[in-house]
């Protein structure tokens, strides 16, 4: 994603102005800086910032569903993994390693998504 380079901008506010800005930005679920960018610039000059935190916040339900699906896939692979470990299938060592690694990778992805979302496993 190409985000234009940003420059810092400082402005002095009275305590009342600060409190008002803080209040309206919180009501809008925006940071104070984002609130000022969205409301202080003409529409055609605004740039929507897509930070990872915002993407997570706006898609928490979908990400939680993804975590559940990853867990289910890992669970679905477990019997296959067990059969491979016990050599119930005639399969090459390379394929065994690949499947075991795939299951491990799914667990890592699921655990990282849980951590990023601040959830408990």
Task: Kindly list the characteristics that best describe this protein.
mainly alpha, elongated, single chain, 2 domains, 121 residues
Please, could you describe this protein's structure?
This protein has about 120 residues and is mainly α. It has 2 domains: about 15-50; about 55-115. About 65% of the residues lie in helices and about 0% in strands. The chain is built from 5 helices and no strands. It has helices spanning about 15-25, 30-40, 50-60, 60-85, 95-115. Helix 1 (about 15-25) packs across helix 2 and helix 4 runs antiparallel to helix 5. The chain starts with 14 loop residues before the first helix and ends with a helix.
What does this entry show, briefly?
The chain is an all-alpha fold and 121 residues long. Helix content is 66%, strand content 0%. The mean pLDDT is 78.
Domain count, please report it.
2
According to DSSP, the number of beta strands is 0
| Tally of helical runs | 5
Proportion of strand residues: under 5%
Taken from the alpha-carbon principal axes, the silhouette is elongated
N-to-C series of helices and strands: HHHHH
Distance between the termini: 30 Å
Identify low-pLDDT runs.
none
Classify the helix fraction into a percent range: 55-70%
Mean pLDDT: 78
**How much is the radius of gyration in Å?**
24 Å
SS-derived structural category = mainly alpha
The assembly state of the depicted protein chains is single chain
The main β sheet shows up as:
none
């Amino acid at each position: 994603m190409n985000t234009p380079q940003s420059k810092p901008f400082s402005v002095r506010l009275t305590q009342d102005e600060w409190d008002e800005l803080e209040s309206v930005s919180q009501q809008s679920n925006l940071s104070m800086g984002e609130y000022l960018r969205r409301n202080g610039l003409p529409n055609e000059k605004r740039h929507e910032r897509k930070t990872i935190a915002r993407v997570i916040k706006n898609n928490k339900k979908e990400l939680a569903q993804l975590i559940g699906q990853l867990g289910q896939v890992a669970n679905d692979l477990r019997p296959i993994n067990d059969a491979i470990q016990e050599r119930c299938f005639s399969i090459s060592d390379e394929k065994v390693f690949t499947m075991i690694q795939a299951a491990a990778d799914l667990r890592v992805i699921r655990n990282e998504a849980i951590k990023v979302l601040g959830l408990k496993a």
